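Memo to structure team: turn this sequence into structure tokens by end of day. - J.P.
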Amino acid sequence: MKVDVLNTQGKSAGRSVDLPDSIFGIEPNEHAVWLAVKQYLAHQRQGTHKAKEKGEIKGSTRKLVKQKGTGGARKGSIKSGLFRGGGRMFGPRPRNYSVKLNKKVRALAKMSALSAKAAEGSIVVMEDFSFDAPKTSAFRDIVTSLELTGKKALFVTGDLESEVVRSGSNIPKVSIMRAQDLNTYKVMANDTLILCEGAVEKLKAIHNN
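Reply from structure team:
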């Protein structure tokens, strides 16, 4: 698939790049995408939640009332979850939420997401750019020229450009990441994907291996 390369003014740079069908033109596998998104969201959970249960809180071990003859239920410990200040019953415990996913399934999911965006016409290829110093206004001009104002846009660069990242970090709904860090969730969570030329080459190298 041939796509015109745009410059920072949003106009054609006079050349085009080839987005290979093996990455951007496959039949999307929705189940693989679902699995990859599920894995990403699961890995965002720390799993450090913890509540004290009956055996973990301080308190008297004295039996509150005699076992029989009161006409009420048995009350064995003030630390029971039935009483104020008692332990929580079946409370959360630390656990690992990570989900295992095979490498080939992750790759299939990402290519499915990229292919879906390409089919929607939601992928833009632009020339590589950089700044001498962080400049939010300069980055905002690029967003405006590409008609992305108000849209969730993900800029994918070939290499980590700290000035570019810092320039775009304060612009609402705009995010920036390297091609090697691109994942299925980020592709699906944004309205438009802006690939720099260097990012296209990196994606080709990653998926051809």
